[in-house]
Amino acid sequence: MKKQYYKFVSVALIATMFVTGCSKNSSDIKDNATNSEAVVTEAVVTETGQVTKEEKVLEEVQAPGKIVYKVTPETESDMKMMNIPNAPYWFPAELLEWNPREAKDLDLYVSNVPLKSRVDKSKLVKSNPTQLADFKVAALSIMNSSTSGNSPHGLNRFNANTFSYWQYVDQLVYWGGSAGEGLIVPPTADVTEAAHTNGVPILGTIFLAPEAWGGKIVWLDDFLKTDENGQFLLVDKLIEVCTVLGFDGWFINQEVGGTKEAPLTKEYADNMLSFVQQFNEKAAGKFSFIWYDSMTEEGVIDYQNALTDKNDAYLIDENGKKGADSMFLNFWWAASALADQELLIKSNEKAKEKGINPYDLYAGIDVQANGVMTRINWDLFEKNNVPHTSIGLYCPSWTYFAADSLDAFERYENRMWVNEHGNPTIPTEVSQYDWHGISTYAIEKTVVNQLPFITNFNKGNGYNFFIDGEKISVQDWNNRSITDVMPTYRWILNQEEGNKLKPGIDYANAYYGGNSIRLYGAMEANKKSELTLYSSDLAISDKTKAYAMLKANYQVNAELVLELEDGSKEYIKGDNTLNNEWAKIVFDLSKVKGKTVRKIGFNFSSSKSDMILINMGNLTIFEESTAVPTTPGNLKIAYQQFDDDGLFAGVKLAWDGASNVKYYEVYKIYDDGSKSFQGATTAKAHYIHALSREEREKTSTFEVIAVNNMQQRSQGTTVVMEWPNNSLPKANMKASKTFVAPGEVVEFTSLCSPNTTGYEWSFEGADHAAATEQNPKVTYAKEGVYNVSLVAKNEEGTAEYKVDGLIVVRSDASGDIPVISEGKSTTASGYVNENEAPRFAVDGKTETKWCATGSAPHDITIDLGETKMVSEVYMAHAEKGNESPDRNTSWYTIETSVDGKSFEHALEVKNNAAAETLDTFKPREARYVKVTVMKPTQGSDTAVRIYEIQVHGFNK
Fold first, then answer.
1. Among residues 546, 553, 611, 610, which one has the least CA distance to residue 577?
2. Cβ(453)–Cβ(620) below 8 Å
3. Residue 585 and residue 547: Cα distance in Å, rounded?
4. How far is CA 155 from CA 145, 150, 160, 798, in A?
5. Per-residue pLDDT, 53
6. How far is it, in rounded angstroms, from Cα 288 to Cα 948?
7. For the chain, what is the total number of helices (H) and then of strands (E)?
8. Mean pLDDT by 10 residues, the chain (956 residues)
9. What is the pLDDT of residue 939?
10. 944 burial class (0-12, 13-18, 19+ CB within 10 angstroms)?
11. Structural element, H or E, at residue 548
12. d(CA 23, CA 25)
């Protein structure tokens, strides 16, 4: 699947600027703005007396004992460090060898958030009459764009699938797996923790791919290996992975169909049934297993699209022995060709006959391609608004991957999970074939059932990071581990006549994290707007307290609205009014002590008629506690890596955990006592990616602080990292062409280290014998072979790079250098299958590719057939073939040889991220050209994908 990379931007910037009294230059806006539900702006000086950022920092410096934040700047470099920790995935044989005690970065891979308990469904209040408490939803969602290369706790970029409609999901399957990366894929820690925070069990994926997608029956053989006692080796391993990494089970998709030479047989099906049953026995209810309706009990890939005699044994066999906990039914039950078979009605009846709960069957709906435009005959799914089975959504992550803005993402999410009204209390009115919205059938679940209940409405990413309402970082970030419980109801907003507020997500303002909830629009004087946010089951005592962090662009009154178990409501006035700074509004709960709260919301009104922007940044309902976080111990630098110029670092910090902690904040400390935010994490380790070295910086001091639910902070613990000495410059260069015609312009590009301040070029035989520009252009009048040198200079010294014979001038070299490799013979260190063999790298097409899996390096050698003069190599990487840019080749070398035995180094390329590359080098004789891929992708994916290699040159 191709991931579209963009920086989400949205809403009503003009309206937001108006209500905040801000002025903005066009250069301040990160992208085009349109009307939207989410806001992205920059906090600047207001006309209401708000101080500037500079004045605020000055005030803090003058206030003894107060934390002074140095705003963390936006990342200006695309530098990708080679030591980024990436979440694990395996082929079956690899998992058999996996030992968690030897696993590097295990402290980053493990979930630290236990599965929260949800309110019993019998206590939930229906939003509409068609919701059914027993009905369930399984979501098979692409939470990261690929199987590999996924940081376990996010990185310094905004883009992430921050799904937040957990209230409608009963199980989330972390969808992944491919023949080119790995087949057994546990969820990343950040996604597990986001799911657990919201009470949703999360399952990993076992994808035994069909042969058409690169699958091999040998992988099925590895998967089903047993010991001498007939115990399946991978059953224990799968349970061990769940236990160690802290997630909740597996979804298995067995679609290997076999070949004529190695067919799929009933023996495989028998073994797989025994495997599933053995997992059930050993898991003992701790971990779930979902079976996909693909392979029948006879060992045939034959999708039933229903529960039938051919697949029911995978749930319970004829002897009553249990297997999988539930089944995901293939999608074709809704196909018009099968409509008259009423497959879901039959599945319901078959389930009852076998003693299976029909709502343990998930009727598959594939929304990957069309999302909320997917056409479904809902009359086949339910009768009189009662579903025959539960729903299994395949790739509801469409809402993220199809969106080109924050507006679209929020709109698609709401339409997918709620309905066309964006309000679950209003029944859907669309046709039987249009998307009904999941809230039509699924009741909203909630984890708001114990104290303290604290939310900052944080979705887990941002363009900025805020602490206590102060913007302390303008660096993009994502870490779904620190996701909060978002509102249960999106959106239930009841307004008196004249009020026209709209709810949404605001990325310009937050109290903690990257966003807040906003209400924006016209408000009439003394008219109320009531926003219902949470379903709950909270018992209120005489010790229970509540407050919220709120603000508005002018004076607004706020009430906390509590709906009680008898259906009555209490409107509790705040002790203060909202204004243009974050304010702590306290609500006296004495009127509801001894009662149970079923719903929580706010009611807003004002004595003024005007456009209003109200921000909700925190809601806290709690009882006082003396527990404070202890100080983390034994902070150390687990590992570090610097780029070639010593200007960027990839640093992993690790420490001993504290008590009474929700998460940890990581800072860089300066000599004046100020600190810059580097991240927040639930783990006892943190990776800082591409940390930029500041001018003349020799050491960096890091601090880790423990933070509890109530935002109380421990004392910090520190560690110092030394930067390498990079005072001397490094010299290197590149020419646009090395075979040139007389009079043709050659562009030279300095590849010197960034600390270079001066350049001395020497061009033998050129129209300019010397140059001092960074990137000069020259021409050569006469045919010949010429040397080029470059001296890099700074105040610490010099470095020279010289290439003898770099430029060859010949009269037939004008324009593009001919391609001499197309259709030539190739060999490679390996390839996935005949459809991705090395010959496809030289077929002149970018629709086909050479792909090889396994550990790098991978190499491919092109035999030109006879000795030629070669000077450059063009390569089309994964993105050129419409794959994710994350799969573009990062690090490779090019070598040449006359005899195919002894190879000469031509060049090395590191940190490439481009979809296409053209690499020039000193012309030389060669029959063989070898490309060796050292790092195949931008992340940890070790599969190489090259869509085209073109060697350019001439006959001798």
1. 553
2. yes
3. 5
4. 14, 9, 10, 36
5. 37
6. 44
7. 11, 50
8. 36 34 30 35 32 34 65 84 91 96 95 97 95 97 90 93 98 93 95 98 97 91 96 98 98 95 96 98 97 97 98 97 98 96 98 98 98 97 96 98 95 98 97 97 98 97 97 97 98 97 97 98 97 98 98 97 97 96 97 97 97 98 92 97 93 97 97 96 97 93 96 96 94 96 96 94 96 97 97 95 96 93 95 89 96 88 97 97 93 96 95 95 97 89 92 92
9. 77
10. buried
11. strand 544-552
12. 7
Specify the long-range contacts of residues 691-698, CB closer than 8 Å, at least 24 apart: 691/648, 691/649, 691/650, 691/651, 692/75, 692/76, 692/77, 692/647, 692/648, 693/646, 693/647, 693/648, 693/649, 693/723, 697/723, 698/722, 698/723
Cis link prior to 857 (omega < 30° from 0)? Answer: yes
What's the order of all strands across the beta sheet hosting 758-763? Answer: 739-740, 797-809, 784-794, 758-763, 770-771
pLDDT for position 116 = 98
Q: Is the backbone of residue 645 left (phi > 0), alpha (psi -120 to 50) or beta?
A: alpha
Q: Which two tokens stand for residue 913?
A: 């991220």
At residue 870, the pLDDT reads 97
CA dist., res. 379 & res. 344, Å (int): 10
H or E, element range at 274:
helix 266-283
Dihedral of alpha carbons 50, 52, 55, 57, sign? positive
Q: From CA 143, how far away is CA 27, in angstroms rounded?
A: 32
**pLDDT at residue 65 in the model:** 56
Q: Could you give the dihedral angle defined by the CA atoms of residues 749, 751, 757 and 761, in that order, rounded to the nearest 10 degrees?
A: -50
Q: How far apart are the first and last CA of the chain?
A: 44
Name the 3-class secondary structure at 639.
strand
What does DSSP say about strands 825-828 and 858-876: parallel, antiparallel, or unpaired?
antiparallel
The one-letter amino acid at 702? F
- E-strand stretches of 810-883: 825-828, 850-852, 858-876
- Are the C-beta atoms of 250 and 175 separated by less than 8 Å? no
- Total-model pTM: 0.87
pLDDT score at 589: 98
pLDDT of residue 912: 93
- CB atoms near residue 104 (< 10 Å): 12
Q: If 0-12 CB within 10 Å is exposed, 13-18 middle and 19+ buried, where does residue 475 land?
A: buried
Q: Which two tokens stand for residue 467?
A: 């602490």
How far is Cα 535 from Cα 453, in angstroms, rounded to an integer? 12
**Other CB atoms within 10 A of residue 469 CB:** 19
Closest to 482 (Cα-Cα) out of 657, 713, 661: 661
d(CA 943, CA 679): 30
Q: What span, in angstroms and rounded, lies between the C-alpha atoms of 59 and 103?
A: 47
DSSP string, 161-197: -----GGG-SEEEE---BTTTBSEEPPPHHHHHHHHH
The residue behind tokens 């590149």 is 734
Prior bond to 491 cis, omega within 30? Answer: yes
